[in-house]
């Protein structure tokens, strides 16, 4: 009798633990979110287009920056509501130094599951010609910052900060972005010709993990 009861208790206990575990895994899968990715697809500086400037003198003073921003929501079952997207453009004066050029904003927008959005916009550069070259090209620093709410079924999560930046090489005689592919606005440092940064970030992540592990084992 006693054995049977403890066996029942044991079965009950096991199923309780199993279902709790399943609920936790289900909630984790439902609530887990991935940050959207932002790319500069195109960037064009009409003032550097030699074909225009040789024909029309006035366009030399055109300090417009024309760009296309691509935003990808990689969440397959969650929408994303973007707050105003603030973009800043700076010009590299040398490999380490930048000068602010322009700010612009994009209106808030909503993006459905797994969607990609491309937005054309422009900004007016201030403070003189955008023709300083570093290593033979004009380099711009592009940064963005916004806040996002994820939509899970019918509910919105609290706001999360989303930001990033990248260095964009522009051809000094055509005014077009050199790399035809989109450039991810991620955690690239504002320095021309630095490839070491992602490796260093990986080291920081690894050492943070090891320090946490030590704390965990000690206490
Ligand atoms: C540069 O200017 C020429 C002449 O106006 C034009 O045909 C060409 O499309 C321009 N380049 C870009 C990248 O827009
Ligand atoms: C600069 O050039 C672009 C593209 O050619 C044009 O859309 C824009 O109106 C021009 N801006 C000024 C101030 O001339
Ligand atoms: C950029 O910074 C690095 C490291 O701080 C330095 O070694 C290098 O000389 C700097 N380059 C320029 C052009 O200022
Ligand atoms: C861009 O905005 C920042 C702060 O919002 C400001 O400090 C900076 O002067 C602005 N730059 C230009 C070129 O408008
Ligand atoms: C850059 O632009 C300034 C002002 O528009 C001009 O005086 C200078 O000659 C230009 N430099 C080059 C290398 O084109
Ligand atoms: C800039 O464009 C010209 C003409 O298309 C090309 O000959 C040159 O190689 C380009 N420069 C860079 C750095 O891509
Ligand atoms: C300058 O350009 C050369 C050839 O494109 C490249 O090998 C070198 O890494 C560049 N230097 C910097 C600081 O970007």
UniProtKB/TrEMBL annotation:
The entry's keywords: Membrane, Transmembrane, Transmembrane helix
High-level lineage: Eukaryota, Viridiplantae, Streptophyta, Embryophyta, Tracheophyta
GO cellular component, one term: plasmodesma
Subcellular location: Membrane
Taxonomy, superkingdom: Eukaryota
GO biological process: defense response to other organism
Full protein name: Protein NDR1-like
Transmembrane residue ranges: 7-31
């Amino acid at each position: 009798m006693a054995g049977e009861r403890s066996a029942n208790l044991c079965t009950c206990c096991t199923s309780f633990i199993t279902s709790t575990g399943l609920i936790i895994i289900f909630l984790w899968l439902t609530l887990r979110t991935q940050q959207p990715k932002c790319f500069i697809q195109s960037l064009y500086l009409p003032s550097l287009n030699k074909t225009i400037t040789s024909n029309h003198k006035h366009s030399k003073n055109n300090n417009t920056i024309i760009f296309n921003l691509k935003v990808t929501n990689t969440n397959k079952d969650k929408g994303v509501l973007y707050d105003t997207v603030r973009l800043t453009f700076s010009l590299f004066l040398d490999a380490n130094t930048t000068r602010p050029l322009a700010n612009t904003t994009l209106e808030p927008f909503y993006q459905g599951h797994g969607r990609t959005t491309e937005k054309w916009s422009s900004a007016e550069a201030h403070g003189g010609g955008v023709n300083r070259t570093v290593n033979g090209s004009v380099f711009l620093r592009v940064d963005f910052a916004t806040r996002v709410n994820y939509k899970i079924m019918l509910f919105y999560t609290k706001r999360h900060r989303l930001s990033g930046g990248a260095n964009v090489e522009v051809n000094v005689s055509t005014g077009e972005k050199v790399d035809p592919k989109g450039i991810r606005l991620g955690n690239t440092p504002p320095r021309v010709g630095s490839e070491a940064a992602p490796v260093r970030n990986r080291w920081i992540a690894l050492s943070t993990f090891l320090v946490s592990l030590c704390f965990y084992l000690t206490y």
